[in-house]
Design goal:
The protein is an alpha+beta fold. The protein contains eight helices and nine strands. A hairpin with a 7-residue loop joins strand 7 and strand 8. The N and C termini lie far apart (199 Å).
């Protein structure tokens, strides 16, 4: 009876010790077996592990890809145009022994805070070396790759593997939005004014060319008209001269008729002597030759 009294507690103690010496690691995690803070065993594959009860303890770490969002970060690019950047990183614990040595009891939260500092410093360094136009453009993959590559070596010292860094949002600070809008508006207005000035200059050139063409055409037309008129007058005078030379009497008659036509237009009044030569062709159908 006395043996059974001592045997049952012993069995219970042994069972408790046996159970506490076993631990299970699933596929989503890695584990370290620590003894008085020193690493005694590393369990990186899923399955059952063993430890010395009471003396040793197990610390588990996430083996999945983790995400870390950075707080909005204000950076100053090379053109001194301030921007607010939101970024996030994806990483995993690659070396849990180095990880434990780097962060100690702080665990994943302490590592995340230290990774934040690394990423913020590299983001400032990379984005501060380019212009704001480079950052705001759609082709930012090269900048994100530079940030990731710059953070890799420092993250490795923590036992972390940086997989990717992404810039989510890149905006101007609120106090700069109005100034930037006004500057963009002024630039567009200046470009519009330049286009209008160039258009007016082109219109003046076209108008001047058209005016010069009009003057040249009118001058040429007038010159041709004068030449044609002179040639016609010369031809007319030649015809008259030939006709008058062939019949002097007809010439005298024509001159008298022309004089009558010009002198007796409208209500004209003339005071002349009846025997004046002006009326020779009115007094006789024979003309001046009959007298």
């Amino acid at each position: 009876m006395q043996k059974s009294v001592f045997l049952i507690p012993a069995v219970v103690v042994v069972a408790v010790l046996a159970i506490s010496s076993v631990f299970i690691v699933d596929e989503r995690e890695k584990a370290l077996v620590l003894q008085f803070g020193q690493i005694k065993n590393v369990k990186e594959t899923p399955g059952v592990g063993f430890k010395i009860p009471v003396i040793q303890n197990v610390v588990r770490y996430d083996d999945r890809i983790l995400s870390r969002e950075l707080d909005p970060l204000e950076i100053t690019p090379s053109d001194d145009r301030r921007l607010v950047v939101d970024a996030f990183a994806r990483y995993r614990i690659a070396d849990i022994e180095r990880f434990r040595q780097a962060v100690g009891d702080g665990g994943e939260d302490a590592a995340a805070r230290r990774l934040d500092s690394i990423l913020r410093a590299k983001t400032r360094e990379v984005l501060g070396s380019v212009t704001s136009n480079d950052i705001l453009s759609t082709d930012r993959a090269g900048l994100m790759l530079r940030i990731r590559n710059g953070a890799i070596s420092e993250a490795n010292a923590l036992g972390l593997q940086v997989i990717d860094v992404r810039l989510k949002r890149t905006d101007l600070p609120p106090e700069n939005l109005n100034a930037t809008y006004e500057r963009m508006k002024a630039e567009r207005e200046r470009e519009a004014a330049d286009e209008v000035a160039r258009g007016n200059e082109a219109a003046l050139r076209v108008r001047a060319t058209a005016d010069r063409t009009v003057v040249e055409l009118v001058s040429e037309s007038q010159r041709q008209a004068e030449i044609t008129r002179g040639e016609a007058d010369a031809e007319r005078n030649a015809i008259f001269a030939e006709a008058f030379g062939a019949d002097p009497e007809f010439f005298e008659f024509y001159r008298s008729m022309t004089a009558y036509s010009r002198a007796l237009q409208g209500n004209s009044s003339m005071v002349l002597s009846p025997d004046n030569e002006f009326f020779n062709y009115l007094k006789s159908d024979q003309g001046a030759a009959s007298e």
